[in-house]
Amino acid sequence: MKFWNQYFTNNVTSSFLLLSLVSVGVVGGVAFFKAREALKQAAFNRLSVTATLKEEEITRWFEDQQRDFLLVTQLPDVQSNMKKLLSQTKSEQEYQAAYRVLSQYLVRVNHLKPNLKEIFVLNRSNRVILSINKIHEGQYEPLGNVTYVEKIEPGDSFAPIFYVSPFTGKPSVTLATPLRELTGEHKGIILAHLNLDRIDRIVRERTGLGKSGETYLVGSMVTRNTFIAKENDNRGEFAEGVSSKGINAAMSGVSGYGLYFNYAKVPVIGVYRWLNDQDLALLVEMHQEEAFAPARQLAGTIVAVGLVSVIFLIIGVNWLTQQLKTSREQLENYSHKLEMKAQEAEAANRSKSEFLANMSHELRTPLNAILGFAQLMERDPALTPKQYEFLATINRSGKHLLGLINDVLEMSKIEAGRVALKPVPFNLRTFLQTLQEMFLVRTEAKQLSLRFELAPDLPEFVVTDEGKLRQVLINLLGNAVKFTSAGGVTLRAKLGTGYRGLGTLEEDRGNNSPPLPPSPPLPFLFFEVEDTGCGIAPEEMKDLFKPFVQTSSGVQIKEGTGLGLAISRQFVQLMGGELTCNSAFGQGTIFRFDVQVQIAKLPEEVAQTTQRRVLKLAANEPAYRILVVDDHQENRELLVQLLQSVGFDTCGAIDGQEAVTIWQQWHPHLIWMDMRMPLMDGYESTKQIKEMEKSQQDTENLPASFSRTIIIALTASAFEEQRANILAVGCDDFVRKPFQEQIIFEKIAKHLGVKYIYTQQQESKQTQDYNSNLRSENKLKSGDLSVMPSSWREQMCQAALEVDADKIVQLIELIPKNHSTLADKLTKLVHNFCFDEILELTQGECE
């Protein structure tokens, strides 16, 4: 009995196991095929919707182009001028007038309707007599592949003729409409090449088609089928044409869907449509492997769960099915959201980059002319001290405006991640001395003390980003002077070592600090800027370093953009340190920061340059020909006059095309090339000149030492990485606007070996004398204004708050003549934009 029971149990178990395995297999197989069918139907529906939308958009686009083309050509004025242009009895004057009117009209049409890529007119002999592309005028145009359009009737279909363009090697469509007399006599033809980029974009849009989804258009090219539009343009791989079950069916005029092998012999699930109105086949396909992957995953999971536990087979399968379904839906939703976010971020970054490039060019270009002509005028030895003073004011104002522009652009570049360190060796003590001299005038004008306390062990030569360190110190010192009315400003600098930046200096470590890692300590410069000004309120400290945020004191003064501290902190962090602030409201503020540096081994590592002004070319120097290319006349004339003043032969060009022409005729030794111009920009012009130069050298077997033309780029771009793009097209060097004349002459000498005769800068002495007089004469006290009534002082305070120079000048004119010294001192303060000093003098007068 025991044996029987065991035998029965084994049989039952074996049978149950066998039945369970069969059940698992059946369930798994059924689940796979059911899921596969469901997925196939869902895929067909999705592909059909996509195909329908694209078909409607393509049809609408061709109808729009057909309508636009007829509207362009059938206007009465156009028809009238066309008749004059094609008339056999026309006078030359009538012909030229008609030619000019039609040329201007067609150019405007091309700008407004960019899909009409090129519009041109043929006479009876099929010769091009008018085209927006002047190169094609006079040539003959074959008419075998054009699509004729004479009128549009409701319900008419439109079947464009596709052909392979001999210029681009890509499928093209040309629309044509005949020009006839009232008698019906043929006079000529108007043609337009269509720009099919929009069709490409429509077809390439693959939203909702997965990773392997693909959409493409196929058209007939006489003897073979070829791609009209496709995401990956690989027409070269199918020189004999493309073929598949879907393509052949669609090209036969049949629309449908199914499973088949595509043109690349890959199994796909696809929808194919014959676009009868356009004589095109539209196919939307997805790889079967991707489409049916969820079904395979589901069946495999069911079998695996059944093998592990038969008892919980049903529960496990149902649970797992639900979990898979939920997970797949969540994953699809999450993937879709990620894709949308990535597209939005990419679009935002692209928009920001375009904004920065445009703003940099549009703002720096006029500043280049202002500062450049001021420098050019300073070269005149006949200038009076007063004129030097006016020029100095222009320079200071321009540089102040440039500083504000740079603040905004710098903040945008930081947010876009486009800022990088440029470490260079420099003399630190000379660097700090220059800063002290820069702020000495302002502090003395406000009767403040300015102290620079430098540690004895402060190195003379260091390596770090000199420009960013200078901007940080100028921002902090400028704020300290701006918000301090009594007392003084102190800058302290010392050398320390650390591992992580601020707070790791040896002098600043506390007893409770964690032990430092065993790696060698890094040298850091520690700076501290302290003032005795108004201080910062505690509630404003949390927003101190946010962009475009100003403290209440800054709002009252009405100066600055609120970007200085935000940019300073970003720069300090970029240099390996941290910027912090401690302030006592009503008593003063201390800003501290540290930056990582390298100690320069030898003073020779620091390039020492002497500020000398070029007077003229040295004796026996050859005649150098220099071409200046710039579409802005003021910038072009500035550089031309500057170079002519020292003895160079110069010539100007307004765009890249003219530069190429002048190069062919004049062969300049050096070209100053603006990179952003209409018609042909500096990139294309440089590329063409370098290619022609190389071709000339190869054709004429010229030696390797052949003197080639040097091309130096001029750009107002805010981005440093533009340098790589500019050098890649063939430029030999790079100068950013606004430029200093010394840089211009140094670049010419570097590339051409030019030698100059120099003279000491006369204006430097004039500026020193002016600054000296400013220090000695402008030391006004608030009591000096007591000679004027309180109402006058109140108006003066209000005008200074509003930075209204004209109003201040009018008030100065009211000062009695026996107080002319007071009037002169106030006038100098206005001319030098010292509005904060005027505010100090009138303190307490404003309500």
Give Rg in angstroms: 39 Å
Sheet with the most strands, sense and barrel status: 5 strands, mixed
Q: Strand-residue fraction?
A: 15-25%
Poorly predicted runs are 1-10, 499-519, 603-610, 761-778
Overall morphology: extended
- Helix tally equals 23
Distance between the termini: 115 Å
The largest sheet has its strands arranged as: 2-1-7-6-3
Counting DSSP E segments of at least 2 residues, the number of strands comes to 27
Mean pLDDT: 78
What structural class do the secondary elements suggest?
A: alpha+beta
Q: Helical proportion?
A: 40-55%
Give an overview in words.
The chain is α+β, with helices and mostly antiparallel strands and 847 residues long. Helices cover 48% and strands 19% of the residues. It is built from 23 helices and 27 strands. A five-stranded mixed sheet has the order 2-1-7-6-3. Strands 9-8-12-11-10 form a five-stranded antiparallel sheet. Helix 1 (2-73) runs antiparallel to helix 4. The radius of gyration is 39 Å and the shape is extended. Residues 1-10, 499-519, 603-610 and 761-778 have low confidence and may be disordered.
Question: What is this structure's SSE topology?
Answer:
Layout lengths: L1 H72 L2 H11 L5 H21 L3 E7 L5 E4 L15 E2 L14 E2 L6 E2 L1 E7 L5 E9 L2 H8 L9 E8 L2 E7 L14 H7 L4 E6 L5 E9 L4 E8 H4 L1 H16 L4 H66 L6 H31 L8 E4 H18 L3 E6 L6 E4 L1 H17 L5 E11 L23 E10 L20 H6 L6 H11 L4 E6 L3 E9 L1 E2 L13 E5 L7 E5 L3 H13 L3 E5 L2 H11 L3 E5 L7 H18 L10 E6 L6 H7 L4 E4 L4 H12 L3 E4 L2 H16 L12 H12 L3 H8 L7 H12 L3 H7 L6
Parallel strand pairs: 3-6, 14-16, 22-23, 22-24, 24-25, 25-26
Antiparallel strand pairs: 1-2, 1-7, 4-5, 6-7, 8-9, 8-12, 10-11, 11-12, 13-15, 15-20, 16-17, 17-19, 18-19, 21-27
Helix pairs in contact: 1-4, 1-7, 2-3, 7-8, 8-9, 8-14, 9-13, 9-19, 10-11, 11-13, 15-16, 20-21, 20-23, 21-22
